[in-house]
Known about the structure:
The chain is an all-alpha fold. It has a domain at 26-69. The protein is built from 4 helices and no strands. The chain has helices at 14-24, 28-38, 44-51, 55-69. Helix 1 (14-24) packs antiparallel against helix 2 (28-38), helix 2 (28-38) packs across helix 4 (55-69) and helix 3 (44-51) packs across helix 4. The protein starts with 13 loop residues before the first helix and ends with a helix.
Amino acid sequence: MARREHVNADNLTNSELSILIYEKIHSARDRDIMKDRLINGLTYERLAEKHDLSVRQVKNIVYKAMDRLF
């Protein structure tokens, strides 16, 4: 059984994070949300306002994307 290497966002540069997000997240909206969250440090509330979503929707998007990324 192949062993998965654990990747942590803290160990990656912003450029590496951007590439990983681009490769793993297919929705343009979700990519924007993840870049704003991981690279720019926007809060869930600010992301919800920016993308006209509820905070719960943003949290779900981030949670699912984090699972795909890491």
